[in-house]
Amino acid sequence: MTTKRRVLLDGNGSSQINIEGLGVYVPASELAQIKQNLGAEIQQLKDQVQAMQLERSTHIDDISIDRFANAMRVKMAYARAKGRSGWDDPAQCSGEHLAKMLVEHLTKGNAGTFEDVANFAMMLHQRQESPSLLVDAIGNLNATAGNKLEALRDSIQACENQGYRVMFGNWQVTGAILSDSDGVIELVQE
Prior knowledge:
By secondary structure, the chain is of the alpha+beta class. It is 56% helix and 13% strand.
């Protein structure tokens, strides 16, 4: 893009010239030198931008960041289309809530989890929230899990008190199946 500037004489026969857009008056005798200096500076800036673009376009770090940013962008657009908004307004969405959502998404492990986690991190970053919110969110998640484990332990104890033997199919208990044979309750993952 070429920028054209008008050079205005002050009309009083002065040797000072106003270069429009720069807001300065320069002696007419120095105009050629100023143009040359500006041209050289502009070319240096163009060369720097071109070098950054070349480096950016060929380095695997930058290529990967661009790809991941695009995946985040698609995920955010999909969420917007579903009516989600307000992350940027603390009155609508607290930093604590964003941190909680980020931490909860770490346990999902489905397609799109990386993008969700990154988008929540971006939201917290852009709002300049404290990283300590994540520590608090993990603590709250652990407390909730502890409460659920305590309730499960109480349920198991109640079953055992009634003479049932409780067996676990795996450690991720999400449901229970009653067995007709020998009074066994087997808790299995759904």
